[in-house]
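User: Need the bound-state model for FE2/S2 (inorganic) cluster:
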Amino acid sequence: MPTFSLKINGKQHTVDVDADTPLLWVLRDHINLVGTKFGCGIGQCGACTIHVAGSATRSCLIKVSQAAYMDITTIEGLSEDGEHPVQQAWKEIDVPQCGYCQAGQIMTASAFLNENPNPSNEEIRSAMDGNICRCASYNSIEEAVKVASEKIS
Ligand code: FES
Ligand code: FES
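Assistant: Bound-state model below.
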């Protein structure tokens, strides 16, 4: 089994796994970072979204071999204290319902706001479009991204 070195949330990890293993499995099953969720496994729901080199990335679609030596951030590493502006906004608006999709929503929103800190509502809807919420918390998500953008800009 090959060995891969991964930099996740600022810490180095070494894993022995098949090169084709999806990064999502490695995060959850080998490194115990279970905040990143499995939804569909085929890139369709966004539940598994993390940041790879700062970009929102579906960890079910990227192989561990593609992620080696790249800067990876999961929901556990977005902030030290849960007080990233997006996390603050999520709490203020009380977005989560069942919560299952929310780590992916927050990781998508935070990467988006890094690129576009002052978005229109239409831009927010477009950016968040691929993240499915089975509890249909879409209006709250849009409002929270707006609130987060006001905190950032
Ligand atoms: Fe990765 Fe659904 S689990 S997009
Ligand atoms: Fe339940 Fe989004 S809060 S799936």
